[in-house]
Amino acid sequence: MPNQRWVRxxxxxxxxxxxxxxxxxxxxxxxxxxxxATTFDIWATLGLNFSVxxxxxxxxxxxxxxxxxxxxxxxxxxxxxxxxxxxxEEKIRISYYKENSKIPVAKAILHITCVEISLDADINRSGxxxxxxKQKSQWTWGPDGRGAVLLVNCDRxxxxxxxEDNKDTELKSxxxxxxxxxxxxTAHGPNEVFQNHQLILxxxxxxxxxxxxxxxxGEMEKKHYKHVLGSGKLSYKVERDLDQVxxxxxxxxxxxPDIDFSGLLAFHASLLESTNKEIPQAxxxxxxxxxxxxxxxxxxxxLQPISVYVCSVDxxxxxxxxxxxxxxxxxxxxxxxxxxxxxxxxxxxxEMEFGYTQAPxxxxxxxxxxxxxxxxxxxxxxxxxxxxFGYVQRDLPPEISPSSLDSFGNLEVSPxxxxxxxxxxxxxxxxxxxxxxxxxxxxxxxxxxxLHAQVVQSPIELHSDWLLVGHVDEFxxxxxxxxxxxFRLLLASPSACFKLLKEKEEQGHGAAxxxxxxxxxxxxxxxxxxxxxxxxxxxxxxYCQKCIDWNRNILKRELDLTEKDIIDIPQLFSPDSQKSSAxxxxxxxxxxxxxxxxxxxxxPFGPIIDGQCCLEKEVRHLLEPxxxxxxxxxxxxxxxxxxxDVHCGTNVRRKPFSFKWWNMSP
Amino acid sequence: MPNQRWVRxxxxxxxxxxxxxxxxxxxxxxxxxxxxATTFDIWATLGLNFSVxxxxxxxxxxxxxxxxxxxxxxxxxxxxxxxxxxxxEEKIRISYYKENSKIPVAKAILHITCVEISLDADINRSGxxxxxxKQKSQWTWGPDGRGAVLLVNCDRxxxxxxxEDNKDTELKSxxxxxxxxxxxxTAHGPNEVFQNHQLILxxxxxxxxxxxxxxxxGEMEKKHYKHVLGSGKLSYKVERDLDQVxxxxxxxxxxxPDIDFSGLLAFHASLLESTNKEIPQAxxxxxxxxxxxxxxxxxxxxLQPISVYVCSVDxxxxxxxxxxxxxxxxxxxxxxxxxxxxxxxxxxxxEMEFGYTQAPxxxxxxxxxxxxxxxxxxxxxxxxxxxxFGYVQRDLPPEISPSSLDSFGNLEVSPxxxxxxxxxxxxxxxxxxxxxxxxxxxxxxxxxxxLHAQVVQSPIELHSDWLLVGHVDEFxxxxxxxxxxxFRLLLASPSACFKLLKEKEEQGHGAAxxxxxxxxxxxxxxxxxxxxxxxxxxxxxxYCQKCIDWNRNILKRELDLTEKDIIDIPQLFSPDSQKSSAxxxxxxxxxxxxxxxxxxxxxPFGPIIDGQCCLEKEVRHLLEPxxxxxxxxxxxxxxxxxxxDVHCGTNVRRKPFSFKWWNMSP
Lengths: 666, 666
Fold this sequence. Notes:
Low-confidence stretches of chain A: none
Oligomer: homodimer
Distance between the termini of chain A: 27 Å
Strand content of chain A: 25-35%
Helix content of chain A: 10-25%
Number of strands of chain A: 40
Number of helices of chain A: 13
Mean pLDDT of chain A: 94
């Protein structure tokens, strides 16, 4: 239904009004009618289209057709097809009649000027502004959805700038402008209309801290940009030159969606009538355009890797060299975070998560900086943030200390899934939280709220607090697969490990030892027979298996997985020194880095049987049929003994999905 | 789909597990299978139901039917029909076979105990707890919807208590308990199961500041209530007596929905397995129950009035007496707010808004205290809050001063409407906000956010800032009507007023004067002819009419009204002393109090023609055909000259809708 504007008539004097192209004028036929009048007729100039709509029965009007009975149900609407060249170009006349009279008792004359006012953006998501779009105040999801997209301009295009591009009110470069969405205000009509009408662009208080709008002034080379809305500026009187039809604005987002912000932002272009200097302006028309701020999107292991990050710390040269080799096989860029930047903190998985943000006109990676803040605290902001590389963080209030569950080894994402008819084409986020009864750490609400608010990768809560470190990457990973759903879920499995060891014992290899050739801590059982006989280790692992199975049930339900989609990777856990939570007994094989078909797996140092580690052999046997290449990396002394493995010590930036987030239905 | 739990088998030793009534156990057939085995069969005691589901083709098994091929697609599920009497009552045995062998190569035996664990509330909205409800973690709207309702326990049942009942962690009286929702935890099964399993009731951090849960202990007379969840308590270990099947809890809401709170609250009952004192507990099962906190609901003029409030201030005895008479006609309770409580503030409409909150088991009125905070500041809390009379407020941070738009004369609600297919059975809230360009006052975001978050009366923003006081009740009201939509929208209309005056002038009454018999301020034109001739007054009123018409267009669109649903009430406005915004030129007739069919209308003091005020006559002519009774009340010197009229000086509590809010689809 087009927007309707009701306009009063006068039988005293001819009046004038504006008609806004694409809307309808409704004439107040009855309001102006003299009390004696019972019927009316209409005459109009050719440029006007008018229609008469009434609910009551057609009455018997014999004199001059068409003439209509005056009553409140009659509705006269007027439209025009193009902006007027001159003011008051068209005219409509309503003549009122007494019963049975040929001579009108009064006439109301209305002059009409048509103007076009339209606030437009890329509502068709084509990368270009859609002119004269309809239903711009609605934003809809899905392949048939409509509505423009705004990026949070959280990169830093200007070398040497102190902060992200959206932390100031300047538009400094073309690179910066290209991160913004173009918004065009069309105001087309006779110049004199815009002399006694004011055009304003405005937002409400809600939008104020979430957007920045720049007005593009001047021609080509001499173009400059003025900050006109946001950060305290709620309205902008549009300066329009004579005959100027379009005003071009650039819009940037300041904030990602969050618990108190759906991501929708409304911009309004309004026309105000200034009849008289002594009287305030009255609103005539508002055009509303809604943008959605693009969410931050995570990338699962099944997406192509672009670059691999690792920290260089005292004594981990061999590890760095092995990861470098792996990265080179997978044709990834290899990035070392040097000691002065990591300050002895090797857990680069935990400090940040790579994702991206996307609009039809522009996509760039965005690093999410965790509230963990240990040695690597400054690395994401100082070294990752840059031109076309955005940055977002969620820090805790100073009185709250982050827990280990706030580290981003505890933040993963599944490949795309379909769950009982509902599509998750960007996968679902997986986070580890606590289960009441035992412990009480949790991923901070501020981080969880942010993840939920992105909407497109609906998070699933797993139970990770049974682990000393408490990260989901300690018991699960995803690898690409050529068949079925395109991936397998790998789960650490004490049961599978005991089953394997028992088979080996039955085959006469009970004396084969774990940890051959490395210095292992005192007290660890190490022959297969000893491990199997260790009742307390068995009990402990049964408990761990139950915790993993609890998560397995959640994952099966929430990702709609069957047993065929899951591979159990042999793994044992042991209690920590407090005997209250679990740590990996040998390097945690699911804590791997996945680079396309190349898997960098913590070398488990399992019992050597027939010259081969039986754990490695089993894992190869499970994964190689999927076309995957297992590369075992020794992280024993440099990572494993410090309570993490290969995944914890690496980070990977991946290609964005080819699927566009706005094409889904969350 | 019932909840599934995956359980591991062992061929080494018989194992035990719990089955939760209403769920399914999935057996890990393949995980326990010896590597040589290729087929399996199943034997089970009679109390077990099992089913075998496989995706692959039935294979040619000639020995003993039924026997199944071992592969990952096979799925064996087990259920039971009732809680077990004794532990390990039922048993299932899986026998594994090598190819072509009659003798099993291994057997896995699993003992199963069935227990019932169910957390229930009134999910059918009948006023009683629904036992063994399904899909309790979903909350759905509409007549076919399901899900329990929680009240914000914001009344004060205990005489002399300092604060609302939900501001402490005590349940003091039966009256208090009746405001809470009952929640029953059923735990049915052999006692020994509950000796090595822990039952806990828990909430997440999100719920912590939004609920209070009390555990009902002891029998009948000796009953007492212990605060077990909320306000820092996230989990409660349920103490279960021998053979105790049900534990009864009472739940209160602490907060109404708001921008960061949808109103949904989840409660979980979990069973944890404690195998061994040295090993932490592992989760086995969680039942989740979701409540929605009942919204605060406003009551339109079309609902039956219960009580009328008015302030007694210096010199307004006549006004109070007239309102008392009106209330008595309408059979309403009449409540005077005395001078010591109003502290010279007569604008009782502005300080508070009456509404209610409702659950299937209980409904009570709730006063919403505005952030306006003038003389009447303490009245709602001190005098309205009480037994079964709730209280909610939204105060601004101390650094922000409320504007006149924060007064609740600027907060109204329409009668029920249907708008292009969408039903609003509780009407829609109307608030006045600013229009950029002229002024910059607004209703505070904190109040707007609260109103939007109630969800059931989707607010409409009107433009009220063109008025000096800036309230929507200065230009609109709703009255009941026997026909059409059941109501009419009354709009103040300068056009209608000039039209009327002009007719009177044409009829020879140009000399008739306004304000006869009262002292009027200097400079006001007062004969009909003078008023019509006052060009600047005409211009000003044309501006005001445009502002009202702007709102008329919004109201027509957002409430789906036609011209037949609207009555124009003659009214003039004049500029304030700054000539920047509008005030009523004579007592503002739409600013009326509506008590059923009795309307208390500000006496306009219009020109007397044939012994009758022509404005009163016109209004009677417009409204009396609807069966309404117009009672004109003189508020000239005591209210009108102070910039308000009858509606501003009164407040009305009304009966709740008979329509239940949960039956709508917002």
